[in-house]
Amino acid sequence: MTEMWHHGETRDGILRVTINRQNKPVNALSRAVLQELRELVQLIHRDSSIRGVLFQSGKPGTFIAGADITEFEDLTGEAAAKEASQFGQTVFRELEELTKPTVALISGACLGGGLEFALACRYRIADTATKTKIGLPEVQLGLIPGWGGTVRLSKLIGLIEALPLILTGKQLNGLRARSKGVVHDAVPTEALDTVGEKILKAHFEHGSGTRLFRKSNKPGWQKAIQNSGLVKKYALNKAEQQVRKETRGHYPAPLAIIETLRRGLSLSTKQKYDLEATTISKLGGNAVTKECIRLFFLSEEAKKIPEEVGADFDSKEIRQVAVLGAGAMGAGIALLFAKKGIDVRLKDIKAEFVANGVATVRTLLAKDVQRKKLTKIEARDAEDRISPTVDYRGLKQADIVVEAVLEVMDIKRQVFQELAEATGPETVLATNTSSLLVSDIAEGIAHPERIVGLHFFNPPHRMPLVEIIRTEHTSPEALAKAFAAVTRLGKTPVIVGDCAGFLVNRLLGPYMNEAGFLLAEVSDPLELEKAAVDFGMPMGPLALSDLVGLEVAAHVAENLHEAYGDRMKPAPVWGLLKELRESENVKPKLFDRSGTQLQPAVMKSVLKMRGDAGLMGTRSISAEEIIERLVYPIVNEAAMCLQEGIVRRSEDVDLAMVFGTGFAPFRGGPMQYALSIGLDRVVSSMEAMSSTHPHLAPSEALKQFAAQGNFQVHSVEPAAT
């Protein structure tokens, strides 16, 4: 065994196998690795000295992260994809059929094919570490588990319990996995080997009837009901209704999972495996699957610092952080670092503000404990790492300081003046501003080369994207350290140049503003929402305005207009709504409490605006035209960002918009979508629309990219402003 499955001599009848794929950062299952496992299984079967096997990872933080999806590109045909699925099924079936007990000692990521491997073992013991994640996330790649996962998990915990795990790709920690019955027990990491040995020795003595584990506390009648064929069919039907409602039919994988499980109800075990492999083969070449896999590769690539940065920094070297501003955002950012084992100083100007921040931290931790994402001890440790303060003492040794105070330039400049004096020369100073230029904040500050932007999205504990903003003065070392901090938090970083709105808000501005123009023209405002959601957006642009907050949206729109001129001129309707927001009798929301119709006062303002503009005879606008007017301006602005060097590649735009705004993932992001329909079409449509709406004219940048047929950038220096 040389590739991944390493073992020594058998002791006391127990063979210990260390899973450690050589020259790879994580353990992943390639074809060669599976073949090697098959040979190991055959060796175990033949060797009479081996009475039981312990499988344990040799890579901290990873058990088996899943299949090696770099091999997916080779599975171009249905036959090849089906054969690959069947081969994995065969290897795991041979593992499962060993008469000698096997124990998977799970520490770290045990996902996809990794969990399918563990399910083929006789026993599964997980640790309680925060890095341990157990699940079948294939659906997020547009696939279904293809190595027996749908069959074994349903058999192990019942279809009713397995269905939501397979459908959503939800990842469980050790404690949650134990409560669901996915693993037999969850223990401290240091106890894994001892517990595994105890299980095997008990099995040697008592056979599979060992009583080391807690029995399910579900009453027998509940188990009987859940095993009823009628109940299973009902659950599958309800799941299908929910999936169709949530995905609008855009994602084939969830529906394929449901159909596979539904058809499997009347099939033998062998037939279920064949059905799983057949489903995999059909999904493999699907366009949606390809886009989901592309985004996965982009997100993995984003974790590697670009070579053009010119420096690197080990994220493990970040030991002390400070956060200024103990509001919801600041407290959330502080908690992110604390949960990663980093000591944090949480500062605000008043003790009561700091106390409120600590209360926010405790509330978030309590929710994590309640949901079994953290143990009580882990939550306590995280809170203990946060040191509340009202002064700058202790910041000299900070590796990075994140400022999250009010969005007021004078306040931020004062804070950075004080930070420059209170911190050491190697400390990176980062601002979490979303609407102000980082270079303006840094103006007049000593050593501006160590100032960067770190734009977290709200709420920071949920949103995966962080924009890292470089100015013309930001040093490679500061940029590298900021990048390391973001990856240490498990976030997806995108490096962008310093400009109004940075990348995501700059692109989102035209989208939301165009919704304002459409609101004045379309006969039924809810047609905007339906068109956007049917296109694949997580919500309509009007609902997004409510979520962001009308005051915030208006403030961003004003900044973008000031920076970019007439193409970002706010739609007239926002002016009327601003007056409406200032009324004491109207809440600053577009929608009423039901969320299904505009508030009467809002609709009254819209009608008034239509009358003033002579638009009372509004027309019915097709969903296609609505999408063109909403999405094409995003592409247009992104083309300018590329040409200006705000981002390096169109792929960065796609990643940022999908992870930062939820832009239809199955379409691959706005740039990939534009390429799929043709850049010439985007340009010609915008030219036609600009005859009545001048702000929709295509930019010279977009025209140039359309002429060459791609978004390849040639000889553009990264811009800072």
How does this structure look, described?
The protein is an alpha/beta fold. It is 50% helix and 11% strand. The chain is built from 29 helices and 17 strands. α5 runs parallel beside α9, α13 packs across α14 and α14 packs antiparallel against α15. The radius of gyration is 28 Å and the shape is globular. The model has no long low-confidence stretch (mean pLDDT 91).
CATH class identity of the largest domain: Alpha Beta
**DSSP, total strands:** 17
Shape: globular
The main β sheet shows up as: 8 strands, mixed
Poorly predicted tracts of residues? none
Beta percentage is 5-15%
Record keyword descriptors for this entry.
3 domains; about 50% helix; alpha/beta; 6-stranded mixed sheet; about 725 residues; 29 helices; 8-stranded mixed sheet; Rossmann fold; N-(1-d-carboxylethyl)-l-norvaline Dehydrogenase, domain 2; 2-enoyl-CoA Hydratase, Chain A, domain 1
Write the SSE topology.
Layout (H helix, E strand, L loop, with lengths): L4 E3 L6 E6 L11 H16 L5 E6 L4 E3 L13 H19 L5 E5 L2 E3 L1 H8 L2 E5 L5 E3 L13 H9 L1 H10 L5 H7 L4 E3 L4 H15 L13 H7 L2 H19 L4 H13 L4 H16 L2 H15 L18 E5 L3 H12 L3 E5 L3 H20 L5 H9 L1 E4 L10 E4 L5 H14 L5 E4 L6 H5 L8 E6 L8 E6 L5 H13 L3 E6 L6 H18 L4 H10 L5 H8 L1 H15 L7 H10 L18 H13 L10 H22 L5 H12 L8 H8 L1 H11 L10 H9 L13
Parallel strand pairs: 2-3, 3-5, 4-6, 5-7, 6-8, 7-9, 10-11, 10-13, 11-12, 13-14, 14-15, 16-17
Antiparallel strand pairs: 1-2, 15-16
Helix pairs in contact: 1-2, 2-3, 2-11, 3-4, 4-5, 5-9, 5-10, 9-10, 10-11, 13-14, 14-15, 19-21, 19-22, 19-25, 20-25, 21-22, 23-24, 25-28, 25-29
